[in-house]
Q: What sequence folds into this?
């Protein structure tokens, strides 16, 4: 009997330690596991290194984690977005470190980490400041830069459906970084709007096989970042913060 | 002179229309965020292009009808889109395998500067105040078969954007295939900027004056 | 209007040139595109380099291509199988070159070729004869070997269903090498038991996106190697060969 | 003495049963072609293991009923199998990402030789006549968290298979975790072969005589 379900987002993130590297799925708001991120804020882990494509919007989700001062370093490709104010302020005050990585190199480094490939060569960023100080190599007459795989202590992602074995399906462009991040996390935690018994999903259509997933938590109606922001929400809620 | 409505030469829509003419039926195309997205509006009748958006969709369609949007069906500019018949969703590693592996036929991008050798600067002005952000631009120029640049010929201050050597941080070296500006269509040839076509009312001299490196006459 | 269908397997392989590198899907008989291989035998291209996990069984499919003397070199992980006699004979007579690659390294090299990654490091085969003469590098205290991406002029694979845009679904363990090989072929040719209009397949369930596929040919009832062998078949048929 | 039915010690089934006892519930396991496949028959009641077969299936089930087989639903040994509830199919790059990336808990493999440092030789006798063939063996030993070897303690000719140093070509260096033979269970410890358990009727001296390197007594 295999059952990777945990009862709550709180329980799902309980053991994330100070100083952990945490991969967080999402491209913009699509695929952002907001409820897991909010649980991580409540949990209190500090000095995190966050690997995520963006840095969140408004003061919910990823931006709220940054705002709460829990993140020491961000590894991402695009730390600016509409409604993005938290990261720029922290960055300008020197309170968060940034490792800027081209989006495709970021995806490939994560996939490499998950696939046991410690390093690879890529043409991306050759001749640009993002290859400064990196090892170059000419292969077949073209120049490439050496990039290293990335792994994480924990990965937080959002699925549409997951089963008790940890198999996951996604929704539209919310898939984005979740499959490679699921591979690269020592502990991969999935929040899914629907959780079903093993055997329910079509084995041909599974996107993330269960071997890459450690915990599944049911979040029936996940919030959308843009809707929270439009409603003026923050996390923690201002009322709660003042209480 | 406003970049939005140049005194003479092509409008943005004109440029987009001109780019669209050069894209063969069945091409796999990635349109950069912003102005390059206009190209999709001007694809000639009878041609089908397949649009790739690097956040994980091949077969991207136009914006949804009002109220029919899905906050998790978006493009690389984080705007809501739709999926066309024949579309597929995939993860970021696969999406950039398409880009890096040379599977896309064309990328249309904006520019801060393009050098006569085809170097492109379009992600950063190098200012120490700015938050650096690169997204998929470096991957696109390194991997896609042809890179077209859509841009005003000069900056708002009248400075040439086609230059001998880029002064802004590069996005990629020797990556641009062709430039479509409000004044001209210009190839990056082995010898430098080679004129392909002038916008109506624009003379060779007028374009040359506004270009920061020698403009070569059209190939015979 | 995009329509990647071609009328016949003969037309699909017509331009494969002498000396071409051809990737051929399949693990054992599962996923072997037998009808495309037989069309390639009829077409006559010579001095091929074949990248495929195995070397075929009996005297049909891949083994028949070898038997016909069309293959100069094989890149594979396991050139022996039950009922495999053609390759061993050619190999012992020195008539075919063999590049032996561990199966996972072969898969990753093909995937790298398709993904624009010219080379990568892997722990597989370090300390074994298959790493002899290859570049080693210590990363994070462990030793790795440098392996290069592989691309092909043509890829031949078998799908269960394909649409007119070249999107492909597979059947069970017939999937094996087809998705990475589809990425690594300059021209990728799919034979599919069912061919449908674009828009018929679920965009979430597509395994090989159409961008990786150039030609789709309908082979309604593909033969299974084991059944051909059990029936005593050879290709070309013995009768035809004597006619 | 026949390898199939040793005079004393464990039978193949006994060894497989002994291996199965050591595999925790929920483990992701790859069983090598041949003898290691026996392990699946002896998994203790109440434990569920998930079997990976490197040709592209997680959640492999037993052979199909007669006539219900599918020539394209096979295992790495190219025999027909089934898929259990919770199974998934995937391509070879993904399958070996599972292996190389350390996602599998255990691989059980056969051996020609195992050295006291945990080197494994199991793919080639190095004969110049043989067609070399490696399959996924080198990937498995390089990537899977624990590698158990199931083997007769000696060859058919009575030569030790547990040796100081392998003379056959290696599959991997320092990769074996534990050996299950017909005579004993032996860990690869930092100091060498460390006895864990002897088969019934087998003395320490009997096992040592048939081992090509010092056998260390069980850890206290």
A:
């Amino acid at each position: 009997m295999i059952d990777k379900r945990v009862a709550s987002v709180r329980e799902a993130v309980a053991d994330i330690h100070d100083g952990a590297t945490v991969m967080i799925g999402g491209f913009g708001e699509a695929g952002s596991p907001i409820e897991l991120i909010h649980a991580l804020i409540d949990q209190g882990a500090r000095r995190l290194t966050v690997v995520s494509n963006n840095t969140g919007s408004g003061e919910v989700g990823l931006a709220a984690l940054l705002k709460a001062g829990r993140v020491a370093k961000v590894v991402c490709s695009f730390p600016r977005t509409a409604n993005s104010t938290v990261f720029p302020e922290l960055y300008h005050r020197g309170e968060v470190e940034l490792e800027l990585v081209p989006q495709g190199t970021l995806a490939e480094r994560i996939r490499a980490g998950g696939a046991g490939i410690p390093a690879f060569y890529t043409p991306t960023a050759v001749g640009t400041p993002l290859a400064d100080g990196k090892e170059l190599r000419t292969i077949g007459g073209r120049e490439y830069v050496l990039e290293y795989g990335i792994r994480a202590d924990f990965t937080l992602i959002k699925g549409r459906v997951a089963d008790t074995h940890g198999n996951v399906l996604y929704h539209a462009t919310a898939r984005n970084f979740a499959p490679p991040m699921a591979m690269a996390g020592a502990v991969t935690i999935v929040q899914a709007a629907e959780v079903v018994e093993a055997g329910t999903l079509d084995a041909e259509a599974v996107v993330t096989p269960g071997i890459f997933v450690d915990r599944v938590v049911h979040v029936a109606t996940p919030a959308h970042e843009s809707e929270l922001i439009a409603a003026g929400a923050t996390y923690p809620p201002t009322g709660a913060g003042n209480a | 002179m406003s970049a939005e409505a140049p005194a003479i030469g092509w409008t943005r829509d004109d440029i987009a229309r001109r780019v669209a003419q050069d894209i063969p039926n069945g091409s796999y195309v990635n349109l950069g965020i912003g102005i390059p997205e206009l190209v999709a509006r001007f694809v000639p009748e009878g041609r089908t292009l397949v649009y790739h958006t690097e956040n994980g969709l091949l077969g991207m369609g136009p914006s949804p009808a009002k109220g029919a949007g899905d906050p998790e069906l978006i493009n690389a500019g984080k705007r809501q889109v739709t999926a066309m018949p024949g579309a597929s969703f995939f993860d970021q590693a696969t999406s950039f395998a398409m880009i890096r592996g040379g599977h896309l036929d064309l990328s249309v991008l904006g520019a801060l500067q393009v050098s006569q050798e085809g170097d492109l600067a379009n992600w950063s002005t190098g200012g120490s105040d700015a938050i650096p952000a690169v997204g998929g631009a470096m991957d696109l120029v390194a991997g896609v078969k042809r890179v077209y640049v859509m841009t005003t010929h000069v900056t708002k201050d009248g400075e040439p954007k086609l230059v001998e050597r880029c002064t802004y941080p590069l996005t990629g070296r020797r990556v641009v295939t062709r430039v479509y500006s409000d004044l001209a269509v210009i190839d990056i040839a082995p010898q430098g900027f080679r004129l392909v076509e002038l916008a109506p009312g624009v003379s060779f001299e007028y374009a040359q004056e506004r270009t920061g490196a020698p403009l070569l006459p059209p190939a015979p």
